[in-house]
Amino acid sequence: MAMLTAKLSCSPAATASLGRRSGPARRAAAVRASAGSYADELVSTAKTVASPGRGILAIDESNATCGKRLASIGLDNTEVNRQAYRQLLLTTAGLGEYISGAIMFEETLYQSTTDGKTFVDCLKDQNIMPGIKVDKGLVPLPGSNNESWCQGLDGLASRCAEYYKQGARFAKWRTVVSIPCGPTALAVKEAAWGLARYAAIAQDNGLVPIVEPEILLDGDHGIERTLEVAEKVWSEVFFYLAENNVLFEGILLKPSMVTPGAEHKEKATAEAIAHNTLTMLRRRVPPAVPGIMFLSGGQSELEATMNLNAMNQSANPWHVSFSYARALQNSVLKTWQGRPENIEAAQKALLVRAKANSLAQLGSYTGEGESDEAKKGMFQKGYTY
Amino acid sequence: MSAFVGKYADELIKTAKYIATPGKGILAADESTGTIGKRLASINVENVESNRQALRELLFTAPGALEYISGVILFEETLYQSAADGTPFVDILKAGGVVPGIKVDKGTVDIAGTDGETTTQGLDSLGSRCAKYYEAGARFAKWRAVLKIGPGGLPSELSVKQNAEGLARYALICQENGLVPIVEPEILTDGSHDINACAAATERVLAAVYKSLNDHKVLLEGTLLKPNMVTPGSDSPKVAAQVIGEYTVAALRRTVPPAVPGVVFLSGGQSEEEATANLDAMNKLSVLKPWTLTFSFGRALQQSTLKKWAGKKENVADAQATFLARCKGNSEATLGKYAGAAAGGDAAASESLHVSGYKY
């Protein structure tokens, strides 16, 4: 195993802007092979995304999925409309106060505003890290119990290198685990191994990998069962990440919260969700990992914010934050309705949700003034992304 | 079920947390009869039960020392011994706020076909032995797995897997029977490798250990970890305590989940002074360490004390004062407040305690 020595900053996680090294004397420490020449930058990027009071805006819906969003407000699924919608989001003034990273789909990474400013530059100007979805979607896993696996390793290295050139600094790969289907040991192993291979390749090409094994909300199981499955999944993930020599200081996690299944007879309180989720994290996530950015997975905007807030009522060994798509965009879409005259109001709606989640990250969310729209659940049985 | 929560779960969590109290640490006094014989031989004392009892009484009754000790690991014989006045050692320890612990492994044997790598014996009847020790007052246990760095990529995957699985089985059986398992995967310092090689091996071994503990559903909140510090090999040039501190903490941050309440380091042949300085350096670092970093020292707590005692009754008070000083120094080190060796300190305190190919 080749061990490269590189200097890593030893200071505690603090807001660190691109290129600035915080803290006192830098220490020399063994660097995992895959991080190689990008080690310092990976650590810095991860720290920036994991900065206090900030989280990720996930806008990496595939064209097909984005089409569903647009259809829900009566718009056609054209590149122009997709560009208009993403422009609305990414040109929101003040977004960078609450958002540290934006995950994009490939098409969007190469797009610009109607004035010709690249989306990447729009983000950089607000100290928001540009991110990119790099997986190629879920397909049936042969030999499993109707479960899926995530494709995308072929050609991943050169894709990542190209995205890095375009300005992306972090990547995301989403695989899923289904509790109603088992999950089988095969499905869990494949999910974890695929994530580990992707993570090593991403780091090798300068991108901080967000590691996302989503345990789907579908099912009627109780919260204890979710905790059991989540502990199993994350144990496998971390073991394979270590085997693939991934640099833990240069990754981010995107877990699902530990909740009962969507069809379980009882709903859990935010406190119960927080307790179970934090128990799982404390048992599985080494402190070298700088940030844990939760997915919302069908929770309402309000639930997603309240649950995050409950998790931040006392200090955690890692930054505990959000990486929300639907839970940040739902009200925005409804407000916009595809009309230019609604853009300002829609951007305001985005800031309202972004600020609420920012406060939740700091543990200071109070829930005053939330709209009915925000309370609407967004769970769809058998949801495909 | 996620982690195993048996009838002792609450007690295990409480005990593990207590042992990991900042400012306190563990005295490893579990030398087997054979090993303690070597210690006694070094001061020309005969290896008979009364002498073994006398040494341990010296340690356990040292005035003021127990304040800095949260647990003592005992060998089976000692668990059932008493002081000269008839007070059971277990009672003396408990009265001093010290949790009695017990070594439960049965030593290492070679794994055939490997280059001198070993596995640890002791799983057979472990459950009933643990239950018996619990009745005798023990509340934590210890099992030492041994690995080594060497040419050809040692430790081998076989050795890592085998030792990790052994530790996991042992840990679960302990928890079933009320004992907090100290999980000890010692990577020997023997060799000419540099600190990076030790870091890589330590991270690889600890990742495998926690994988096995998780697979076996061990309740991490009711365990303690006893790892080696990350250092250059014994035949390599030494490095500063701060470097050892940084590499060790980096390795732990990459592998040890926050649910584990404490990391209790072995001293593994370091001198008393080195071990304390390294522990202090770790605790001075500002980076976040969500587990207590403390000591579980055998030789590094007893060496000078042993020399001072030399087996003579008239030396007991002096020896106990020496022991107290080492306990206090290590206590300070767990808080990052160690002031350094006392002026005019013992030469013995700086004496390397490394023995090549050390068999416990």
From TrEMBL, chain A:
Q: Name one GO biological process term.
A: glycolytic process
GO cellular component term of the entry, any: chloroplast
Recorded hits in Pfam families, A to Z, give: Glycolytic
Q: Which PROSITE patterns match?
A: ALDOLASE_CLASS_I
Q: Which Gene3D superfamilies match?
A: Aldolase class I
Q: CDD domains of this UniProt entry?
A: FBP_aldolase_I_a
Alphabetized GO MF terms: fructose-bisphosphate aldolase activity
InterPro entries in the cross-refs: Aldolase_I_AS, Aldolase_TIM, FBA_I
**Which domain of life does the protein's organism represent?**
Eukaryota
* Keywords for the protein's UniProt record, in alphabetical order: Chloroplast, Glycolysis, Lyase, Plastid, Schiff base
Q: Where is this region: Disordered?
A: 364-385
User: What is the catalytic activity of this protein?
Assistant: beta-D-fructose 1,6-bisphosphate = D-glyceraldehyde 3-phosphate + dihydroxyacetone phosphate
Localization, UniProt:
Plastid, Chloroplast
Entry keyword annotation includes Oxidoreductase: no
Q: In which pathway does it act?
A: Carbohydrate degradation; glycolysis; D-glyceraldehyde 3-phosphate and glycerone phosphate from D-glucose: step 4/4
Q: What is its EC number?
A: 4.1.2.13
Entry keyword Manganese? no
Where is it chiefly localized? plastid
Record's NCBIfam families?
FrucBisAld_I
Q: Which family does the record assign?
A: Belongs to the class I fructose-bisphosphate aldolase family.
This one is known as Fructose-bisphosphate aldolase
From TrEMBL, chain B:
Q: Which UniProt keywords apply?
A: Cytoplasm, Glycolysis, Lyase, Schiff base
Subcellular location(s) of the protein: Cytoplasm
The molecular function terms in GO held by this entry are: fructose-bisphosphate aldolase activity
**InterPro entries on file:** Aldolase_I_AS, Aldolase_TIM, FBA_I
| Predominant place of localization | cytoplasm
What processes does the entry annotate via GO biological process terms?
glycolytic process
Catalyses which reaction(s) = beta-D-fructose 1,6-bisphosphate = D-glyceraldehyde 3-phosphate + dihydroxyacetone phosphate
**Which pathway does it operate in?**
Carbohydrate degradation; glycolysis; D-glyceraldehyde 3-phosphate and glycerone phosphate from D-glucose: step 4/4
Recorded superkingdom: Eukaryota
Gene Ontology cellular component terms for the protein in this record: cytoplasm
Q: Where is the signal peptide?
A: none
Coiled-coil ranges (or none): none
UniProt EC number:
4.1.2.13
Q: How does it assemble?
A: Homotetramer.
Query: What PANTHER family does this protein's entry cite?
Result: FRUCTOSE-BISPHOSPHATE ALDOLASE
Instruction: Indicate the family of this protein.
Output: Belongs to the class I fructose-bisphosphate aldolase family.
User: Any idea what this protein is called?
Assistant: Fructose-bisphosphate aldolase
Q: Which organism is it from?
A: Lolium multiflorum
